[in-house]
Amino acid sequence: MLFNRQIFLASFLSLALFIISGCGSSDSNSETSKSPDDNNSEQTVDSKSPTKTNDQNSESINLETAAIPNPAAKGKKEEVKKVDPLIIKLRNIHALRRSPFPETKDPKKLAGLKLDRYRDVIDQLMPIIGKTLADPDRENIFLESIRTMIDSRLKAALLGDQEQIDALFADAESMYKKSKTSPAVAKAAPDAGLAVVHFSHAIARSNSKKIPEFTKQARLFATRFPKYKTFTVPLLYSAAWSAELHKMNDEAINCYTMIRDEFPDTRQAIQSTAILRRLTLPGKSAQISGSTIDGDLWNLDDHKGKVVMVVFWDSKTDQFQNICPELVKISGHYAKNGLRTVGINLDKDESKANIMIEKYNINWPQIFYPEPNKRRWNNSMVVYYGVRDIPAVWLIDHQGIVTSTNVKMKDLKKQVESLLIKKQKSKKRKK
Predict the structure, then answer these.
(1) CA distances in angstroms from 414 to 386, 390, 395, listed in the order given
(2) What pLDDT, on the 0 to 100 scale, is given for residue 316?
(3) Contact 171, 192 (CB under 8 A)
């Protein structure tokens, strides 16, 4: 019978993991202007092993290249330290991994050469993993081998090898289960889990429909390996931001909530709390107030009974300049029907904001603080609601309830009219 090579490899690892705990052991034992914080939101997974940063015993082994003489043996025949043959095999495998690929201008051919290399490496590593898994004296060899295998499998998976994709996920699951009974596996399990998240992230970046899988794997990694928050928190934040950008609010909320609740002492937890305040704002009343560019004070509470449009913007955002004429038109046309508009400006320089206001004949008030340290992304309304992407248009009904914090221009006129009709009907009922 012919066996599928990669399924056999995954099965081999699973069998080896089973053997270490003894027969019958139980498993139970992803142009607008964006917040500067978003520089951290699209991180790829660090290629370093999470366990290497947290466990001194999990450092890469030193591959010895020669026998080591014993300087203490004076007048005696030098004792020679014997090099483990598995170390020599590992050294040769690393040499293979570092060797250049044959030159070719054909991308498909190059991908094929890489896949062959990664599969070859995995084939050579499997016996080493099997021989060292149950040997405490060879734990470092095991860790180096299995991490190298995980890295090779991930690279093959990213090239689209479905067999390796399946094996990548299977290894992560199997290693997590066996980490409860095997100290050696426990040190490598985070690497396997991180590889799955890395893969999911890469796929989500090229296909937004895969973002839910990325958020799922980021949350799973955080649940299983919470102590590795150096990796976990940025992963969750990246997953949340990816989901939010693609309007997958439920997915985003799940990730932001996990950061807030499980990692409260991080900077991202503070940011997540503000973002959650915004994402869950529709259906609730908002708190919007502040100093205006004219030196007055503007407060949402002073406009009860009116439909309010809130516009977050700055002068250097091209997209705002594209939509500004339509915003001015809608604001002016429906003002007589009870629409009020307020801008929240994120410019650093007041003169630039004024140039834009004059250019487009913007006649609504602008919340803009006189204090320089309260401008740009430090605007109190921006900070409080975790606004990260501008321009943004919010709508608030005549009762002070937020109906949307992400109105699209193609829908704006229709939504404004709907809220004004609702307001008018409410007024008639009161009569």
Answers:
(1) 27, 21, 12
(2) 86
(3) yes
